[in-house]
Amino acid sequence: MSRREAEPAPGGVRGGRPGVAVDAVDLGRTYDLGGTSVAALRGVSLTIAAGDYVAVVGPSGSGKSTLMHLLGGLDRPTSGRLAIGGRDVATLDAGELATLRNETIGFVFQSFHLLPRTSAVDNVALPLVYRGIGGRRRRTMAAAMLGRVGLGHRLDHRPNQLSGGEQQRVAIARALVTDPVLLLADEPTGNLDSVTGESVLGLLEDLNASSGVALVLVTHDREVAARARRQIVMRDGVVVPPADDPDTPTVVPAARGGPEIVDPAPSAEPRRASGSDSGHPFGGSGGATGATERRGEIPAAGKRCGGSIGAGPGGGS
Ligand SMILES: Nc1ncnc2c1ncn2[C@@H]1O[C@H](COP(=O)(O)OP(=O)(O)O)[C@@H](O)[C@H]1O
Ligand SMILES: [Mg+2]
Question: Which of 124, 183, 271, 274 pairs as cysteine with 142 (C-beta 3.0–4.6 A)?
Fold first, then answer.
């Protein structure tokens, strides 16, 4: 991973079309499993624009995590074209892709992925190491970010001294400490109880609204998905128009108080291919963006707005 000091840009995309964070055209990703090939993605085109809030839904195995890994530069497509922050990933070597990821993307996963023997503040400071920022300043920036997620009083706790909700807040702080353009959250509430999950989701939405970071959220909860500005519906490795999606209601429910939608079986965290240049996912941070897929778009029913970030006492769980 190359080290260079990169000041976060003021909430914009650093290259390519203005206001576009990620642009994908006809993306394919095929895994080779001992002679058998598994086509996890079969031609997905979408654009994520600055500040957007997009939900990705679809059954387990439909390619959601594969898509997230590609959009975040953790993996490369086997076909199609992908530009992150205006840069075609096919033109980047592994080190350049890692740097781009560090400057542009934040990741949050279902299972937190914190370093177990490392304090909250040092977990959050980790992506700043790759930027060559000095220790004292890293700690100051990480502590400030933990304050924004409501954990200013937990700086020196290790993950096993924190609740699940608090651990996910640490992971969110780590994803955002570099001021990324795009935050990719793959079932971030999947390991949390519903009350804690709601609190974490509210935090993500507040951060999206206040900092302008684009949020792409994988969820199997249709009510949660309806809160996003748009939905991408995936089936068998492709984005399907909502009309072809048996789970999509004809009328998209209101953000709150709409009809109850039964959510399908939860999907497990995906296996990941070794051998992609998936360096360290937490080297990244970025700015702001939104997504516009060319097919399969469901307009937002409503956008949750505002609120203070940081939850305050009791906001964490
Ligand atoms: N590393 C891998 N090697 C082989 N097949 C994989 C790998 N990761 C995912 N797959 C397969 O690709 C398809 C899509 O998986 P994934 O993107 O994890 O789906 P989702 O996140 O929607 O549950 C599934 O059939 C899955 O089994
Ligand atoms: Mg998945």
Answer: 124
